[in-house]
Design goal:
Length: 505
């Protein structure tokens, strides 16, 4: 059975609620979304809180909520991409049908007049056939891109379903903890210090999760680029092996060219997917126009391989140079991860863990006092560091789903560089030294603009300090403390979300 308490909630400027004490005979109904149950403090209750807190910390260490949020956002983004690719694929199909129709009409007219002559001798007919083949290549590339993203959406939805189970379990444990604390302290905070430590812990946890989310995304992006680089390496080797194949072995040439093309298509998809992970970051290399050139080259492999000049040119200016750009991009990702994100994550994790330990110890102290009041027994428990689950792990758990090439070996893992180009590139690629890259993102690019959130946090702490001073004065006068009513995790998260929305407005 629930019970009433002597705390009424009135809005304060921080978005929470300020407790207001009443004489016992004037207790109003507790106005809080947390259920306040009638419970007797005991040693078993203390142990239950400790066990529950450890379970929550352990689950939070796997970044459950952020993983679910990212997977859900990825689902929406993939659906939008699929819509665009479906339009592009249909346009490519229409173009192929148009080019084939024009070639068929010209071939029919030509064959009626020339009989068994070799069509390669007719320049106009060869041109129409080339345009038809190029259109067909563009259609195949568009189809592979569409199929690849559809497959990724299917895998992503499976991961989202599994993640939602863990998220619901975490929410259930959070609710159980909130109800336990609300029951022990009759719907209010146990002390001003607990209130303040909770606010500080929430702020530091938010900061840690922001940095952890950045590491998660950048690590997944680097993984995708590593696969793209290996696929481009294999594509380069396949492409450069074409001249060694017997000219009469047209089927053999077609198979090798197809393997090269499939790896280029998969590499393009992985580069694009890495950019989607970090949509607000400008990459120094492998920018959208460069990837578009690579996609176009992939759709022209069957015509480019027929000419030695085109074969050499496209290798030097597209395939080989994009391999080098992708490799340099990985170096940049590694630099950002090790020199900025990893250091910030270590600092944020240490600060958040220390504050969580302070909060836990304060709650243990307060619960111990309640038990002593109830049982007339001294109970103490120290929140040791080892009791706190290590929540610095698993934030980089790899959730990236790599696009694989159809046919062939998939990607090169030999560690050998692709062959040098036979001709010089029109614009040779020389990567800029990492320390000189102007595009190295600052912390606002990486983690979001937290300055306004920090300002709001400081205002909240100032409000809490005022309440503490008021309560101190009331105690000195022998009056009851006015403790703020407990806020649920949802209310606290909504307060942060509202502040973020105000910041973005």
């Amino acid at each position: 059975m629930g019970c009433s308490s002597s705390v009424e909630m009135s809005p304060n400027r921080s978005g929470g609620y300020q407790g207001k004490a009443y004489p016992q005979q004037q207790q109003p109904q507790q106005k809080t979304e947390i259920a306040v149950k009638d419970i007797t403090p005991s040693k078993d209750l203390l142990q239950k809180y400790i066990d529950l807190d450890n379970e929550i910390r352990k689950m939070e260490s796997t970044n459950v909520l952020k993983t679910y949020t990212d997977l859900n956002a990825a689902n929406q983004a993939l659906k939008e991409v699929i819509g665009k690719l479906e339009v592009a694929h249909q346009e490519a199909k229409n173009k192929t049908a148009k080019e084939k129709g024009e070639y068929d009409d010209m071939f029919t007219a030509w064959s009626a007049n020339c009989g068994d002559e070799d069509e390669s001798g007719n320049a106009e007919l060869s041109k129409e056939k080339k345009e038809w083949l190029e259109a067909m290549g563009e259609e195949e590339v568009a189809k592979k891109e569409l199929d690849g993203v559809r497959e990724k959406l299917t895998k992503n939805e499976e991961s989202l379903k599994a993640s939602s189970v863990s998220m619901e379990e975490l929410k259930k444990k959070h609710k159980e903890q909130e109800e336990l604390l609300a029951a022990i302290f009759k719907g209010a905070y146990g002390s001003d210090l607990e209130n303040r430590l909770e606010a500080e812990s929430d702020f530091l946890d938010d900061r840690k999760h922001r940095v952890g989310a950045a590491k998660y995304k950048w690590s997944n992006g680097r993984n995708l680029l590593s696969h793209a680089t290996a696929q481009l390496c294999l594509a380069c080797k396949k492409w450069m092996s074409l001249p060694q194949i017997n000219p009469q072995d047209k089927q053999g040439k077609w198979v090798v060219a197809t393997e090269a093309r499939n790896n280029v298509v998969a590499a393009c998809q992985n580069i694009t997917s890495a950019r989607r992970y970090l949509s607000t970051i400008e990459f120094p290399y492998c920018k959208p126009p460069e990837v578009k050139v690579l996609e176009t080259a992939a759709s022209h492999v069957y015509t480019d391989m027929l000419s030695q000049q085109r074969h050499q040119y496209v290798y030097a200016n597209v395939y080989h140079i994009m391999y080098k750009r992708c490799k340099a991009l990985i170096d940049w990702f590694t630099h950002v991860l090790t020199e900025t994100i990893a250091k910030d994550l270590a600092e944020a994790t240490t600060a958040a863990n220390a504050k969580a330990q302070e909060l836990r110890q304060e709650r243990l102290n307060l619960i111990s006092v309640k038990i002593k009041e109830e049982l007339q027994q001294d109970v103490s428990f120290e929140a040791r560091a080892e009791d706190l689950a290590d929540d610095s792990t698993s934030v980089t758990e790899d959730e990236s789903q790599v696009f694989q090439a159809e046919g062939g070996e998939g990607e090169d893992k030999s560690g050998e560089e692709p062959p040098a180009a036979d001709v010089d590139a029109d614009e040779p690629f020389n990567p800029v030294p990492l320390k000189e890259l102007v595009q190295t993102p600052n912390k606002e690019d990486l983690f979001g603009d937290a300055q306004e959130l920090y300002k709001k946090h400081q205002e909240n702490l100032e409000e809490l300090e005022k309440n503490r001073m008021i309560n101190k004065a009331r105690q000195e006068q022998g009056l009851e403390e006015k403790l703020r009513a407990r806020r649920s995790r949802r209310q606290r998260q909504e307060a942060v979300a509202n502040e973020q929305q105000l910041q973005q407005a």
